Amino acid sequence: MPPKGKGADKGKSADKGGAAKGKGKGKAEDKEEKGGKVKGAQQINVRHILTEKHAKKEEALEKLRGGAKFDEVAKEFSEDKARAGGALGWKTRGDLDPTFEEAAFNLEASTLANPKYVEVKTGFGYHIIMVEGRK
After folding, report:
1. If pLDDT is split at 50, 70 and 90, which confidence band does 64 have?
2. CB 3.0 to 4.6 Å from 49: which of 16, 78, 107, 114, for a disulfide?
3. Distance in angstroms between the alpha carbons of the first and the last residue of the chain
């Protein structure tokens, strides 16, 4: 009897597990994205504004809060070489400063006109980061 029960349980578990994994995983990811959390990604299309001084970063944040587009604020305030509106392009995990990377990969994608951003301090200075795409 136990071998028969084991076999039957195994079959049922595999079917339920397989079906549940596929359905559950998709639903959980959808819920996470809607709930403010983001799906795991291996690549992000990221922009940033980099300043050496905290006061300059705060000025940039005020402009963003006032409704300015992220790329325009980046062109005005960013002190790095990313001249194209702060665009760094597509980056994979391991390409960026660990502190910057952790914040960027946890940020949901948004648009230049309505950016969702995060502030981070690294050895390079103060960053305001936004993500345009994830894959």
Report:
1. very high
2. 78
3. 49
Q: What are the phi and psi torsion angles at 94 (to 5°)?
A: 100, -10
Question: Which among 72, 56, 41 is positioned nearest to 126, based on CA atoms?
Answer: 56
Cα(107)–Cα(49) distance, rounded to whole angstroms?
15
pLDDT mean over 110-133: 96
d(CA 4, CA 8): 6
DSSP string of the chain, one letter each residue: -HHHHHHHHHHHHHHHHHHHHHHHHHHHHHHHHHTT-----SEEEEEEEEESSHHHHHHHHHHHHTT--HHHHHHHH--SS-TTTTEEEEEETTSS-HHHHHHHHTSPB--SSS--EEEEEETTEEEEEEEEEE-
The Cβ of residue 79 has, within 10 Å, a number of other Cβ atoms equal to 14
- Mean of pLDDT over the chain: 80
Within a 10 A sphere around the Cβ of 97, how many other Cβ atoms?
A: 14
